[in-house]
Design a protein that fits this description.
- The structure is a single chain.
- This protein has about 425 residues and is α+β, with helices and mostly antiparallel strands.
- It has two domains: about 25-50 and about 55-145, Phosphorylase Kinase, domain 1, CATH 3.30.200.20; about 145-365, Orthogonal Bundle (Transferase(Phosphotransferase), domain 1), CATH 1.10.510.
- It is built from 13 helices and eleven strands.
- The strands form three sheets. It has a six-stranded mixed beta sheet with strand order 1-5-6-4-3-2, covered by helices on one side.
- A hairpin with a 2-residue loop joins strand 2 (about 65-75) and strand 3.
- The relative contact order is 0.14.
- The model is unreliable at about 1-10 and about 10-55 (pLDDT under 50).
- The structure holds adenosine-5'-diphosphate and magnesium ion.
């Protein structure tokens, strides 16, 4: 696929302060919160018979005309659609609901809350929440982005130029720093959750595994993050991991963008740890104190491999580039670089400088690319589809675990537990 001339349009800023109206509704529960999202995104309050504003009403999904399928969501197809009133292109994603009696699962409430409260130019923007004809169908309406970085990278014959990689990595780190500043960890950072616009903007999407974290030690669901981008502490079964797991994923993405190939394309947890040890040297208690106490530390036999081959594997990268990659791919999560520190790394101020988003190359939409075919692109696509299917399994399992932990928060059957569940959600 050949890049077409760069777009001159600017990367639009959608950064605006947190809307207190939304925050208040988020406390009140999903129906109100969803209604508030619809309002904040431009939906008009519907006056009742007395001329006073009534409760927020959700718009129907029938306001949107489905154009084509653009992605396989864990709980349904993601569609490109057109807003019949404004003509604007959007992406429609079905939100998971339980059976009618049980209402909205806590994981969907979390996804919605993060989307409502986090607004940043490098996070995909939630425009509205709309309902379908059935009682249990709720759809999220997002700004439409023509590319999914997974599909785009797989179809490119050559990697991005280094200045372009810097531009993309800087945007990704800005999104992650913004989320971490607000006590949100994403827990599923990977190329297919990075969208890309014709204006050169990168947008992190998919908050299906995101959750709020605490500044003190807490236990979280083990086994999160799609395998290729999963941090070593998660592979070793840690339950009290931190937001540093997102930075490991950023390191994997940095390397993948530089060489147009996934860094650790392992199919099993053991294969993943072998690949990491082979490239970075085997971790041990000396470089990573506490590693031996992790639940699965005895389950895997790591090779005796003492060398770090990053410099050899990335010969074209400057010393400071290798240093940044090393700091992102640091085994000990306590020593791993943070997103804010990474943004200040000298790699971003040395030549070649990060390209400005508006000068990034543009490509024909990755959502329009034909599937199938032969050769490298098809092989890569197939491999990524397998990895994606695995990722969807991870997410489904996680949602089941969360349901066992909390129960379903908002169905009639459990209405009395709502305040308690809401408190524990954060
Ligand atoms: N706003 C959007 N614009 C364009 N494509 C999108 C958008 N949101 C999602 N997609 C496509 O749909 C795929 C699945 O969406 P995602 O939110 O990641 O769902 P899932 O939870 O199942 O992974 C993405 O990888 C991407 O290809
Ligand atoms: Mg996804």
């Amino acid at each position: 696929m050949q890049p077409t001339p760069a777009s001159s349009a600017k990367c639009p800023s959608n950064h605006h302060p947190l809307d207190p109206h939304l925050a208040a509704h988020a406390e009140a529960g999903p129906a109100a919160a969803a209604g508030a999202a619809a309002h904040s995104a431009g939906g008009e309050p519907k006056p009742d018979g007395d001329g006073e504003a009534s409760l927020p009403v959700l718009d129907p999904v029938a306001d949107y005309e489905k154009i084509k399928r653009i992605g396989e969501g864990t709980f349904g197809i993601v569609y490109q659609a057109r807003d019949k009133r404004s003509g604007e292109l959007v992406a429609l994603k079905k939100l998971r609901m339980e059976r009618e009696r049980d209402g909205m699962p806590v994981t969907s409430v979390r996804e919605l809350r993060v989307l409502q409260t986090c607004r940043h130019p490098n996070l995909v923007e939630l425009k509205r929440v709309v309902t379908g004809p059935r009682l249990d169908s709720v759809f999220l309406v997002f700004e439409y982005c023509p590319h999914d970085m997974g599909k785009l990278v797989d179809s490119m014959p050559k990697p991005f130029h280094e200045s372009e990689v810097k531009c993309l990595l800087q945007q990704l780190l800005s999104a992650v720093a913004y989320l971490h500043d607000r006590w949100v960890m994403h827990r599923d950072i990977k190329l297919s959750n990075l969208l890309f616009t014709h204006q050169g903007c990168l947008k992190l999407c998919d908050y299906g595994l995101a959750r709020y974290f605490q500044p003190w030690e807490e236990t979280y669901t083990p086994g999160v993050v799609t395998l290729w981008y999963r941090a070593p502490e998660v592979l070793l079964g840690a339950e009290s991991y931190t937001e540093a797991i997102d930075l490991w994923s950023c390191g994997c993405i940095f390397a993948e963008l530089l060489r147009n190939d996934p860094l650790f394309p392992g199919r099993t947890e053991a294969a993943m740890l072998d690949l990491m040890a082979g490239l970075l040297g085997s971790p041990n208690e000396r470089i990573w104190p506490g590693m031996a106490a992790l639940p699965h530390a005895d389950k895997f036999q790591l090779p005796a491999q003492p060398y770090n081959y990053l410099r050899k594997e990335f010969p074209q990268l400057s010393d400071s580039g290798v240093e940044l990659l090393n700091r992102l791919l640091t085994f000990d999560p306590e020593k791993r670089i943070t997103a804010r520190q990474a943004l200040r790394h000298p790699y971003f101020t040395e030549r070649p400088l990060p390209r400005l988003p508006e000068y990034m190359p543009t490509f024909p939409s990755a959502h329009d690319a034909a599937s199938g075919g032969n050769g490298r692109a098809a092989q890569h696509r197939q491999r990524r589809e397998m990895e994606e299917a695995h990722g969807r399994g991870v997410k489904r399992r996680y949602q089941m675990d969360e349901r066992d932990r909390f129960g379903d928060a908002f169905g009639d059957a459990r209405a009395r537990r709502r305040p308690e569940v809401l408190r524990r959600l954060d």
